Amino acid sequence: MASIVKQPNGKWRARLRPEPGSPQVRRHFDKRTEAQAWVATIKADALRGTVLDQSGRKTTVRQYAEAWRAAQPHRPRTETSVAGALRKHIYPTLGDRPISSVRHSDVQAAVGKWSQTLAPTTVAYVHATLSSILRAAVNDHLRADNPCKGVTLPRQTRTPVHPLTSSQVSVLLERLPESMLAPSLLALGCGLRAGEVFGLRVSDVDLLRGTVNVRQQRGSDEKIGPPKTPASMRSVPLPATVRDALAAHMTLRGLHAGSDVLLFVLRRNTAQMQFRKAADDVGLTSFRFHDLRHTYASMLIEAGESVKVVQSRLGHAKASETLDTYAHLFPDSEAGTVRAVDAFLTGSAAKSSTG
Question: Which of 69, 73, 158, 290 is the most exposed place for a label (fewest CB within 10 A)?
Answer without folding.
Answer: 73
